[in-house]
Amino acid sequence: MIIPISSAALRENTPSEALFDTHSEVSLDFKHVQKQLSNGYKKPFLLIDSNIIRLKTRRFKATMPRVHPHYAVKANPDRRVLQTLIEEEASFEIASINELDLLLELGIPASEVFYSNPIKSRAYLEYAVSKGVEWYVLDSVEELRKIVSVKVDAKMYLRIDTPNIGSDWPLAGKFGAHLADINEIITEAAALNADLAGVTFHVGSQCRNPQNWRVGIERAIDIFSEMLTAGLNPRLLNIGGGFPVRYIKPIPAIEIIANVINKAIAKLPDHIRIIAEPGRYLVSDSAYFVCRVVGTATRNGKRWMYWDAGMFGGVIEMTEGLHYEILTDRTGNNISWTIAGPTCDSVDTLMQDALLPHNIQEGDFIYIPNAGAYTTAYACNFNGFPLPDVFVI
Ligand SMILES: *Cc1c(COP(=O)(O)O)cnc(C)c1O
Hints:
Layout: H1 7-11, H2 30-37, E1 45-48, H3 50-63, E2 67-72, H4 79-87, E3 91-94, H5 97-105, E4 114-115, H6 122-131, E5 135-138, H7 141-150, E6 155-159, E7 167-169, H8 179-191, E8 195-200, E9 205-207, H9 211-229, E10 236-238, H10 254-265, E11 273-276, H11 280-283, E12 287-299, E13 302-307, E14 334-340, E15 349-357, E16 365-368, E17 389-392
Parallel strand pairs: 1-17, 2-3, 2-11, 3-4, 4-5, 5-6, 6-8, 8-10, 10-11, 13-14
Antiparallel strand pairs: 1-12, 7-9, 12-13, 12-16, 14-15
The protein binds pyridoxal-5'-phosphate.
Pyridoxal-5'-phosphate (PLP) binds next to helix 11.
């Protein structure tokens, strides 16, 4: 059902419930999980439906025809995922030279790759330059000088701080030049005759407030004027990532966010290239994460369950407050469980007070939908537990 949005609601600075859940979202069909399990179970796995990645990429492009997606490789760097995105004519954004190598092996031209990590080691910069990467982000005078010292004609874009209100992972603080820092960076770029050519921001991951993009774009437009005044040639707007997917909380559909973004960019002249860096949005809904209960216990009256995958095995975002939908084959009454991973590190405790059937026991499967982003990408072998498998259909 489509709920009409009043322009008053769009002007609000806090998310209005009227913005939420107005378009249906697609998830991997559970029958594929059952089919995979009919071959047996060895260890936790992620099952990806590449068709959903295709659909999400097409939907993203259709809602924002002027905004070209550069997928954030860190969300899920699986080659088959990247290949699917290439076939859908998406481009890419990287943080390291390993991510760059992965893309070069797949035939992506380096000149189309955006190096969007605001602090890069000199060695990584030299490597990226030698491979032909042209676009580099910065958010400080020091990084500006470092990039120019390695590549005098680098095309650079300035990462600015924007509000992260309504994001599940506010990123504010670690990166982004503040208002007070921007002038010095622009002045130094002009003095060095450097090609500071654009502005970027990141509204925070899983951002449920479309107004954050509007504020970021408006700030970028102001900074373009400052750049022009300083003699620079601004021609790139990079609106970053943060586009949300459905877990448990309702989200504004991409069409609603696009509506806000399209209005905000309408004033920009045609020579301004506009890109975005969606990560989670393009891949999350495509996959189920499947793991298993290896044991249960009662401790001081509280029920605990231990999975064979925890924060080191693929579900680290649960420890950061992400509430996935958690499905099991049990239908008993729900009770409050504490969920933990299999390692002996006490930080490997995933969730307190998860309401799940009382009769869950050793050997039960746990099914987590919409888990294609930031799961296997984070997994490591800590304590001798294996990396999850990744299957792609
Ligand atoms: C992680 C990241 C993204 C992707 O963020 P999502 O929230 O997954 O969309 C985009 N750009 C940069 C610079 C990032 O670090």
